[in-house]
Amino acid sequence: MQAQVITLAFFVVIITFTSCYGSSSRSAELKEIWAREYNDTLAGKCTKRVPANPNNDGSPSDSATVLIEVCCKGYKPYEYDTKKCIPDCPYGCENGFCVSPNVCNCFDDHIRSHDDQCVPTCPISCLNGVCDSNGMCTCHPRHILDPFRKFCLPICHGSCGLNRYCSSPGRCSCIRGFKENLETGECDPICPLNCLNGRCISPGICACNPGYRLQDDVCQANCTSCENGKCVINEVCSCDPGYTWDLKRNKCIPVCTRCLNGFCIAPGVCKCHEGYERIGESCQPICDGGCTNGYCVAPNTCNCKGGYGRNIFGKCKRLRCHIADDTKSICGIKHLG
Ligand SMILES: *[C@@H]1O[C@H](CO)[C@@H](O)[C@H](O)[C@H]1NC(C)=O
Ligand SMILES: *[C@@H]1O[C@H](CO)[C@@H](O)[C@H](O)[C@H]1NC(C)=O
Question: Is Cell division among this UniProt entry's keywords (predicted)?
Fold first, then answer.
C-alpha cells in the first residue's frame, strides 16, 4: 500500500512537470536528478546512541545502548521514503532542488526572483508580466524589468529600508529570515525559540544573556541533565518535540503512538520486545510454524479457535468429545487426534 502511494506521488510530480513543458526528455531528466539527489541513502544520515532496553516508561533498564539512524541537522526524512534523509530547505524550494541544507537550486528555465523564489522565465511565463511573441517579458503596469530582463520587479517609491524589499507595487515586506515587529514596525531577525535567554542578532544567531550558554542554537541555563530538551531556567528542562517529561526518571523520554509489546527508543521508533515482530503499526507475537486453527496470542503461544484444543506439542487439533465426558479438561486432553 505504502509503495503504491509513494510511486503515485512520484509520478504525479513528474507528470506535473511534464505537462508544464510538454517534453518527455524533461521528464527523464527530472527523474535522473531525483535519483541522483535523493538516492544516496548515506547522505544526511547521523547516528544517535539510545538505551537498548528501556522500561515501559522509556527509562533504561540496563546500561546497554544501540545506535539508531537519525537525520543530521539540516536534513529531514524524505517524505516518500522515510528511511532516507534529504537536505531541508526550511523556506521551501518550489521549482527547484534543495541540494544541501538551506540551498535551493532553481530548475533550468527558472530564475530566482526578487522574493527569493524560483520562478519560470519566458517562454514559459514571466513573473508580473507576460511573455510576448519574441519570448521576451513585457511587464504589467507599475513594474519594471529586472536587470537580467527575466522577470518584472514591482516599483516602490524610495527605498524600503533595512531588511526589507519591494514585494508588490508600493509595498515593502521583510526579507527572508526576518519578521515584522508590530511594536516598532521594523523587520527583526527570526531565531529558534526566540533564543530563549538571549537576543536574536541575525537569523538563527543568538547572543546569550550573562550566565547563559549557547547550546543547540539557543541560550540555555544550567541543568544537571537535559538530554532531548532545552534547559529553560536552572534545573527546568523543556522537552523537545517528540519527547515528554518523565517524572520518575527526571528526564525527557521519547513518545511513540503505538508501541504495545515494544520499547519506544526514539520518537516514533518502536523496538519490539523479544519474540515480537513489527507488522504494520504494531508489535505482534511470533509463533514459530504459525498457528493453524488458532491465533498467536504471545510468543510461541497459540490460542485455539472454537472446537480445537492444544495438544502436547502446542498444536491446535480438533476436539473429539463424547457426551459422557462432562468436564472440559477430559475432552481437551484425552481425545485429541
Ligand atoms: C539507487 O542506487 C542504487 C545503488 O547505488 C542503484 O542500484 C539504483 O538503481 C538507484 N536507483 C535509482 C532510482 O537510480
Ligand atoms: C550556570 O553556571 C555557571 C558556572 O557555574 C554560572 O557562572 C552561571 O551564572 C550559571 N547560570 C545561571 C543561569 O545561573
Answer: no
Which pLDDT score, from 0 to 100, does residue 147 have? 92
User: In angstroms, what is the span from residue 190 Cα to ligand 1's centroid?
Assistant: 39
Give residue limits of the domains in the chain: 10-185, 192-221, 223-255, 302-333
Residue 73 contacts by C-beta under 8 Å, 6 or more apart in sequence?
46, 101
Per-residue pLDDT tens digits for 301-322 = 889 998 888 888 878 888 876 5
Q: What is the pLDDT of residues 35-79, one digit of tens each?
A: 666 655 567 888 888 777 776 655 667 788 888 888 888 898 887
Counting ligand 2 atoms within 8 A of each CB, the residue from 222, 231, 234 with the most, and so the one to mutate, is 222
pTM of the model: 0.63
Query: Residue written as cell 510511486?
Result: 7
Average pLDDT, whole number, for the chain?
82
